[in-house]
Structures are given as structure tokens and as C-alpha cells.
Write a structure and sequence with these properties.
alpha+beta; four-stranded mixed beta sheet; single chain; Immunoglobulin-like; Glyco_hydro_31_C; Glyco_hydro_31_TIM; TIM Barrel; EC 3.2.1.20; 12 helices
Length: 497
């Protein structure tokens, strides 16, 4: 469970609303979440409310401690740089300062004593402010105020700073230029899908389901399905917007459940992508041009994205559409194969790069790249339950009949796990091998099935490792033995196995 700023007292960091989020009662709720295998992550904004010095009741000890520690960004004249965020006028931690790090850590530790949260959703860190420049300088008597509120015209404090420090010009603005009221599609509007797809920051990309999505034209169905393939999946609304809870409409329920089932099947794959992001700096979600840098035509392909190298997602972004155009890198040139996730069939080579794909409401096209091997588990209600389900191995061969991948395993919850396991998979038409490269983690879940996807002699074949492939049929090789005993060094299954 993730909490946005609604849990805060007057939108101030490290303080909870005593009525709606009573410390004792909410701590009990978090304990129940933990018992069911769930986690709790509150938002923490990198913007600290600065109290009104003329109002004794406006005390905020979090600011006082940070100010005493010298933790905040300052103007060139030595005064605090004061912007405007949700609680009103705010200051900002100086992340390059050792003092800020110590103060910030202390506040997290103290807040965690009240609530045993499992992580933090740190937001507004750019610096992100609703005004330009140190607009709060000289205006703290207006606190506490909450946006949107009319910001003063260029103030005397900003003018004084600008004139005294000519090498550090301070930009001032009135409210008309501070608040963006007309979105700029594809440039800065995160509610416009292509911007959301191609402008992620870090591996845990955050692009919320649009507050403008509606069930009436199908956009809510589409956004719920698209966002299921974002690293961070959330439905985000704003006060005053139309309702968009997924459970209100039958079609949105069905569309969401269908996409969530695929997402939870992919959880082991997403987990290793985050492992590679942590260890090697790789991306989890990536633009097509990043994976295929030698194809200049993909520079403008901003309506599809990849998860790692193996999964291609082609969302429908236009209201009322039942088809969507997409590109499949390397397919026309005969360099790559792409398979439909839902039926395992290989795509036919199109006459041109742009391909029209059937996508009725409730369906989001997902394709698997040839030369990929995916370790999958069964969908369940929580990630803990998924980790306790049997394994399926999906082998999607390339045009040369080969595929490879790796797998990372640990207990799935520990910050520093006691044991880990990394494996490599490699396959040709005659042999699938799984080799442990390092680690001693023992996974006790059974290997349920191995599925093979291959395109041979122009035909799409979907089968299992039982000695032959049958056209348009999926056979599954049942394995009752546990994963740890089946592949604890190197296991090979040739076509006689």
C-alpha cells in the first residue's frame, strides 16, 4: 500500500494527521498488512514547511532541527531559499551537504518509530516548486497557505537579492506564468501518454494513471492496462477530478485483472531487471531506440516500450480505437522474431515497418522477443504468494533456433539477503541447459512446465520439450521435482528427456 500526501498533517513531512491517520490505529493497520504479506510505503516530499515566525502556534520541529543543522539550500546572500510546495512556503534539503544527510536520516528513524513502514516514496526532489525563484522570501507571514494560492508579484526580497548578487540573477514571476494551466502534449505533460512512456527517471519509473482518464471513452481501461507494465503501478487521482476507481466498472475490472495477471507472471523477470539495474546500472523500462541504437527510424517510436530486452508492450492510446500501430524492430529485415504473448505464435513479416495490431477494448498487445528465455511463476494476490508458486520456463527461439537468459533469486524481501542465486539459461533446438553461476539460495518450488516457441519453415510452432513440436498446440512437460534438486548444478534436457 502506498500513501500520498493525504496522510500528512497539513501536508508536512514526518507528521501524520492525528484524526484520519491516528498513529496508534494506523500502526495496527500496518501490522495487519505485514501479516498478509503486504507492505506499506508513505510518500515523503523533499520540501520542508517553514513556519510563520509571527504565529507561535505554527511550530514545526522538523524544520527547526534541519535549520539548526544547516541542512537547507541557501540563497547567495545567506538567507534560506524558500519555494512553494504542498504545505505552503517551503525550504529544500541540500543533498550535497553532509549535514542534510544526517538530519534527513534522523527524521526517517524517528518517524519509523511511530510507523513500521517498509520504504519511502521520496518525491519533489528536483527541486520541484510551484513558483520561480525564492518566492517565499519576505512572505512567510502568509503561511500556512496551501496551493493553489495567488503568489505575490516580484517581491522586494527577490529584487534585493538580484541587485546585490548580480552574478546570480533571480527570476521572478507572477501567478500567470508560475502555474501551467495549458498542458503541452509530448513535452512536459505527464498525463500525455508518449511523455509518460519515454521520460522515466531511474529504474522505478513513476507515471501515474491519468486523472483525466474516464470509463466513458475507454481511456481508463487502457490506462489501467498500460500502467500494469510500468515498473511502478498506481492509479493516481486528484481532488476535483472524476472518479476512476477500477472496481466501479465491469470492463475496467476485467481489463485490469487481465493485465495484472500478466504482470504477476512476469514478476521473476522484472525482479532480475531490477537486479541488473542495481548492480550494473541497466534500465528496467526502455525506449526501443535504446535497445536498437543502429536503427534511426526508432528515434520517434514513442508509443511503445520494452521491459528489458525481451518484452515489447504496445498500448492503445487513442480513445475508441480497436487497433494500434506498432513497429517490431528487426522483423522486416529478417533479423528478429517476435511472438504474441497470448498465443505464442510468431509474427509474420510485414510489408513495411509499421504494423496494425488488433487491440479490442480490454486487450493490450504484448510480444516476446526471439532468443529470450523467461522464468515465470503463477499470478496470485500478493508478491509473497507468487514466490510460492511453481515455475514455468518459456523458450522463445530466434531464427537460428537459439535462446538465452539469466535468472536471479533471493528471498524477495530482505534488504541484505542471507543467500542469493544467479543462473544462466541457454537453449538450442536440441538442448536446454540451466547452470548456476554463483550463490546458494535454494528455491523449493516445483518446475511445472517448459514451453517452446519457434518459427520453422515459415510456420509458427508452439510446443513442449517432449521430443517433437506440434503445430498450434501447447504441450507442457510436467515436473514434480523441486527446482533446487532439479537444477542445483547443471541440468540438461535433450529431446529424449
Amino acid at each position: 500500500m502506498w500513501s500520498d500526501i493525504d496522510y500528512m498533517k497539513s501536508y508536512r513531512d514526518f507528521e501524520a494527521d492525528p484524526i484520519r491517520f491516528n498513529y496508534t490505529q494506523w500502526a495496527e493497520s500496518i501490522s495487519r498488512l505485514h501479516a498478509s504479506g503486504r507492505h506499506y510505503v508513505p510518500i515523503i516530499d523533499s520540501a520542508i514547511y517553514i513556519p510563520n515566525p509571527e504565529n507561535e502556534t505554527d511550530a514545526y520541529p522538523v524544520f527547526d532541527r534541519g535549520n539548526a543543522a544547516g541542512a537547507f539550500i541557501m540563497n547567495p546572500d545567506g538567507s534560506p531559499y524558500i519555494g512553494d510546495v504542498w504545505p505552503g512556503y517551503t525550504v529544500f534539503p541540500d543533498w550535497l551537504s553532509e549535514h542534510a544527510e544526517k538530519w534527513w536520516t534522523h527524521e526517517f528513524v524517528e518517524f519509523h518509530k511511530q510507523w513500521a513502514f517498509d520504504g519511502a516514496w521520496v518525491d519533489m526532489s528536483e527541486i520541484s516548486s510551484f513558483c520561480v525563484g525564492s518566492c517565499g522570501s519576505g512572505n512567510l507571514h502568509l503561511n500556512p497557505v496551501h496551493p493553489p494560492f495567488a503568489l505575490p508579484e516580484a517581491g522586494s526580497a527577490s529584487s534585493a537579492i538580484s541587485s546585490s548578487m548580480s552574478t546570480y540573477p533571480v527570476t521572478t514571476s507572477s501567478i500567470s506564468s508560475v502555474y501551467r494551466t495549458t498542458p503541452t502534449p509530448g513535452v512536459r505533460d505527464v498525463n500525455y501518454p508518449p511523455y509518460a512512456i519515454n521520460n522515466f527517471k531511474g529504474p522505478l519509473g513513476v507515471a501515474a494513471i491519468s486523472p483525466n482518464a474516464t470509463h466513458a471513452d475507454g481511456t481508463l481501461d487502457r490506462w489501467m492496462q498500460l500502467s500494469a507494465f510500468f515498473p511502478f503501478y498506481r492509479n493516481h487521482n486528484i481532488i476535483g477530478a472524476i472518479n476512476q476507481e477500477a472496481y466501479v466498472w465491469a470492463s475496467v475490472i476485467d481489463a485490469s485483472k487481465a493485465a495484472m495477471n500478466v504482470r504477476y507472471r512476469f514478476l521473476p523477470y522484472l525482479y532480475i531487471l531490477f537486479y541488473h539495474s542495481h548492480v550494473h546500472g541497466h534500465t528496467v523500462m526502455r525506449a526501443l531506440a535504446w535497445e536498437f541504437p543502429n536503427d534511426p527510424s526508432l528515434a520517434n517510436a514513442d508509443r511503445q516500450f520494452l521491459l528489458g530486452r525481451a518484452i515489447l508492450v504496445t498500448p492503445v492510446l487513442e480513445p475508441g480505437s480497436s487497433t494500434v500501430d506498432g513497429v517490431f524492430p528487426g522483423l522486416v529485415e529478417g533479423k528478429e522474431l517476435w511472438y504474441d504473448w497470448y498465443n505464442g505464435t510468431a509474427l509474420a513479416v510485414p510489408e513495411r515497418a509499421d504494423t496494425t495490431i488488433s487491440a479490442p477494448l480490454g486487450h493490450i498487445p504484448v510480444h516476446v522477443r526471439g532468443a529470450s528465455i523467461l522464468a515465470l511463476q503463477q499470478p496470485a494476490l500478493t508478491t509473497r504468494e507468487v514466490r510460492e508458486t511453481p515455475w514455468d520456463i518459456l523458450v522463445a527461439f530466434d531464427k537460428n533456433g537459439q535462446a538465452k537468459a539469466d535468472l536471479y533469486l533471493d528471498d524477495g524481501v530482505s534488504v541484505v539477503p542471507n543467500a542469493t542465486l544467479t543462473m544462466t539459461f541457454a537453449s538450442t533446438h536440441r538442448k536446454l541447459s540451466a547452470t548456476i553461476t554463483q550463490g546458494g539460495w535454494k528455491d523449493q518450488n516445483a518446475l511445472k512446465s517448459i514451453s517452446l516457441w519457434v518459427k520453422k519453415h515459415g510456420r509458427a510452432l508452439v510446443g513442449a520439450w517432449n521430443g517433437e513440436l506440434a503445430l498450434n498446440e501447447r504441450y507442457q512437460l510436467q515436473r514434480e521435482r523441486a527446482w533446487s534438486s532439479h537444477c542445483n548444478s547443471e541440468c540438461q534436457m535433450d529431446n529424449s528427456d
